[in-house]
Amino acid sequence: MKLVAVSKFHPVERLMEAYRAGQRIFGENRPQELAAKVPQMPSDVEWHFIGHLQTNKLKLVLPYVTLVQSVDSFHLLEAIDKWGRDNHKVIDVLLELHLGAEETKHGFSEEEILMIFEGSTPKSIRIRGLMGMATNTEDEDVIERDFARIEALFRRIREEHPELADSFTELSIGMSGDWPIAVRHGATMVRIGTDIFGPREY
Ligand SMILES: *Cc1c(COP(=O)(O)O)cnc(C)c1O
């Protein structure tokens, strides 16, 4: 399992403490902040983008990240594919499934994600798996249900598309409040901010 240290809003000195302790994967959710931090950190850091990404910000993000975890619309999928073609790169992405959370409207529905695999997938994108955020609640049954839904979709796609066995391998679920439940539901990546760096000051 991979640990993504979610370092948004924290200064580079704090990231370097985690780096010196051995952490190499960092997640950021704002393009400008990511682009500013990249040159200040060692070059063997692997950056993941985990926030809502506007298509006019691609050039601040795509040159630096090894994974865009938060592809949440057809429009964004197409724009990333075009950027990849124009720049002769193949971009690794996760598709974000919209889980129960009322507070975020971002993400695909199950039907939309299945549709993406029906068609011919974009040439300059490699879909590596799914990402989801559970409902922000103390009710573990609700969180459990959210993670069960995304796990079922992940397994279904792998079953229906054996040709993707080597590439569609990542299930990114679990944050500071709910990662033990996510691990029980097959998480291959957890995205942890608060439990590593403490509370964020907005
Ligand atoms: C901020 C954020 C996290 C980390 O949240 P914590 O509760 O601080 O662990 C994980 N995933 C996404 C998409 C985030 O925006």
Could you explain the architecture of this structure?
The protein has an eight-stranded parallel β-sheet with strand order 7-6-5-4-3-2-1-8. The chain has one domain: Alpha-Beta Barrel (TIM Barrel), CATH 3.20.20. The protein contains eight helices and eight strands. Helix content is 36%, strand content 20%. The structure holds pyridoxal-5'-phosphate.
CATH architecture: Alpha-Beta Barrel
- The total strand number stands at 8
Instruction: Give the count of helical stretches.
Output: 8
Going across the major beta sheet, what is the strand order? 7-6-5-4-3-2-1-8
For the termini, the CA-CA separation is 29 Å
Small molecules held by this entry:
pyridoxal-5'-phosphate
The top level CATH class name: Alpha Beta
Question: On the 0-100 scale, what is the average pLDDT?
Answer: 96
**Shape assignment:** globular
Please name the CATH topology.
TIM Barrel
Unreliable sequence segments: none
Structural class: alpha/beta
The helix content, as a percent range, equals 25-40%
- Estimated share of beta-strand residues: 15-25%
The total number of structural domains is 1
Task: Please give a quick description of this structure.
It is built from 8 helices and 8 strands. It is an alpha/beta fold and 202 residues long. It has an 8-stranded parallel beta sheet.
List keywords for this structure.
202 residues, alpha/beta, TIM Barrel, eight-stranded parallel sheet, 8 helices, 36% helix, globular, binds pyridoxal-5'-phosphate
Mind sketching the topology for me?
Layout: E1 2-6, H1 12-20, E2 25-28, H2 31-37, E3 46-49, H3 58-61, E4 65-71, H4 74-86, E5 91-96, H5 110-118, E6 125-131, H6 140-160, E7 170-172, H7 179-184, E8 189-192, H8 194-197
Bound molecules: pyridoxal-5'-phosphate.
The site of pyridoxal-5'-phosphate (PLP) has 14 residues, from β8 and α8.
